[in-house]
Design a protein that fits this description.
CATH architecture of the largest domain: Orthogonal Bundle
Helix content: 55-70%
CATH topology of the largest domain: Tetracycline Repressor, domain 2
Structural class: mainly alpha
CATH superfamily of the largest domain: Tetracycline Repressor, domain 2
Oligomer: single chain
Shape: elongated
Number of helices: 12
Order of helices and strands: HHHHHHHHHHHH
Number of domains: 2
Largest sheet: none
Distance between the termini: 50 Å
CATH class of the largest domain: Mainly Alpha
């Protein structure tokens, strides 16, 4: 492993444990088992470290995007959700700290990726309308909002995990699909169930009638 790669691996682990602002450059040098001067030779500031972490994130995103498939909206939307979930697993300190998200290189990565994902969600709805898999828009702007909401649910999932008991790793994916499935045509629902095999994605948990008591929420 090259020196910079070893530094980034150690620093990301430290940031994920206690946060970006918890450490000085000198403390990071100790974590990396090198002198402050040696660390400064590679990274003059923590901001420079974030710049290289942003490049790592771009490579991670690109690796996932190479797995995309032509015209398979179900698969591709789920892939974007899983991409975000993986980034949140590898770099949770970024998603938990808005000051880190505002760092220029990190912000560029997240802004560009966000725009691409929302655009792809819109393209998926457009394709669904074209092939008759989703119903006509019942009112203007609905599918745009669904495209944005799918991203918001996924992007903010790490915050949800911090305040709720999250049972299954695919919970974010199920929640996104729960907002979209009601707008499927019979044909679209059939293709969706056929694509996922056992149809588990159309079972979203406890029926609403069981919530009427609400005792489990207390």
């Amino acid at each position: 492993m090259k020196t910079r790669e070893r530094i980034l691996s150690s620093v990301i682990e430290a940031f994920n444990e206690k946060g970006y602002h918890h450490y000085s450059l000198g403390e990071l040098a100790g974590i990396c088992q090198m002198s402050r001067g040696n660390l400064a030779y590679h990274y003059k500031s923590k901001e420079n470290i974030l710049d290289d972490i942003s490049l790592m994130m771009v490579k991670d995103i690109t690796r996932f995007e190479k797995r995309r498939k032509d015209f398979i909206a179900f698969y591709n939307l789920s892939l974007d959700i899983r991409t975000c979930r993986s980034l949140q697993k590898w770099y949770p300190f970024i998603f938990r700290d808005y000051s880190v998200l505002e760092h220029s290189s990190i912000n560029d990565v997240m802004t560009n990726w966000t725009k691409k994902v929302i655009k792809r969600n819109l393209d998926a709805f457009a394709y669904g309308l074209e092939v008759g898999n989703i119903k006509s828009e019942p009112y203007d702007g609905l599918y745009y909002q669904l495209a944005v909401n799918a991203w918001l649910i996924t992007y903010n999932w790490i915050s949800q995990k911090s305040v709720r008991e999250m049972g299954q790793s695919n919970e974010a994916e199920r929640m996104v699909w729960s907002t979209i499935i009601p707008h499927f045509t019979e044909k679209g629902l059939g293709e969706f169930i056929s694509f996922y095999g056992d149809g588990v994605h159309v079972n979203f948990g406890i029926p609403f009638k069981q919530y009427l008591d609400l005792k489990h929420l207390l």
